[in-house]
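Transcriptional regulator
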Amino acid sequence: MEQLLHHLRNLGFTEMEAKVMVELAGRGPSSGYEVAKSLGVSRSNVYTTLQRLSQQGFLHSSQGEPVRYSMLKTEELTHMISGQVRESLSFVESQMPRSVTDQPPFYSVEGDDKILAALTRELERAEREIVIDVCHEEASLLRSELERAEGRGVKLLWSTDGGETSLSRHMLWPGWDSSQMEPSECAGRKFSFVIDRTWSMLGMRGDTCSSVAMVTVHPVMTELLLSHFTQEMVLYEMENDIGNELAERYGSHYEQIYNKYVGMDSITGNSEKGSVVQESGEVEDV
């Protein structure tokens, strides 16, 4: 009973309104006198509450004396309330003043719950395109949200590490072999999202480190993430087309190229360690 009253109050009803509604739902059609007597409160307060709820459409009232009030069917009540809430939320979202100067170009989000909440919120708002670079662990956490987006006609462009998932579209592309990295570098799995080419999240999540992400609407960061995605796509296509020629000229994992730029000492310019590119999997429908 108290929990029901609590949720009715959360929906905007006063304490008295919530009690009157629950009482009528349990009693059926009743007069103001009967409701007041059952609740043990003053009749004037109950009469005022009944009239207000009736005017708002939450109660039916009969003709004659005494006037008898009855609740809407539960499904009618919840449908009416949800419609009002959606209308109010839509109005607030469209009309709330926005100060562009107060919007930080970059801000951080820490913790799994906050990161997933931010991603879920933006994925639900996506209208045209979602570009995703994730490990399969993170992909599985957002599977339902991404499937709903795809169901709305949003285009999904994927990069995953090839883990087991039932997501309908994914692309396996070259990635660093984590077995060749230092333990501290393997602590987290990197991920990035670009939504409608305006909103971006770039972060790291792992079992031995705190989850942290950076969110931005800065166009330069969006451009960089999309450029990285495009370059990896092009490299993947080239490997499938002329991979044997590349391997013959530069080595099976292109060490001669990668060693120039990966693991370089920032002062001497000398490569301190090699890097390995995993073999690509097969591209499914993208």
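thats it. The longest strand covers residues 189-195. Confidence is low (pLDDT under 50) at residues 164-181, 264-286. bye
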